[in-house]
Every structure is written in C-alpha cells, then in structure tokens.
Design goal:
This protein has 78 residues and is mainly alpha-helical. It has a domain of 41 residues. The chain is elongated. The protein starts with 6 loop residues before the first strand and ends with a helix. The model has no long low-confidence stretch (mean pLDDT 89).
Length: 78
Amino acid sequence: MPDIEAFRSPIDGTVITGRKALREHNKRHNVTNVADYSEEWKQKTRERERFYSGDPSYDRKRRTEHLKEAYDKLERRR
C-alpha cells in the first residue's frame, strides 16, 4: 500500500507526511479516520433507502412489537 500524500491537518494545522504521522496525530487528538466507518455508513445508507422507498419489511419487527404492546395495554384496561 503506498504512503499517503502530505496534507495539512484541519485540527491543528500541522503537516501530516505519512501514515505513521497520521496515526500519531489521530491518537494525540483522539480522532479517527473517516474510512474507519465506511462499512457502517454503507449499512446505514441501505437502511435509509429501505425506509424512504416504502419497503414494507423495513422495521417490521419493531412495529409488530409496538402493536402487541399497545394491544396488551388496552386489554389490561378492560
């Protein structure tokens, strides 16, 4: 894997000259690289697409549980 090109840190303005320097910089400032979340972001994107497309299977289990709880609550009042 080739080394990264030098760039200026948006946090403190220092010049980051390689992967090692980036790891140290991230550790020092308690931050992480955006690439660390790429798989999680892909999953959330798929979930949003299902939600906005009107997919009936989206969140079916949670909705079913809420309906059961509402029914049970209503039955207890009678």
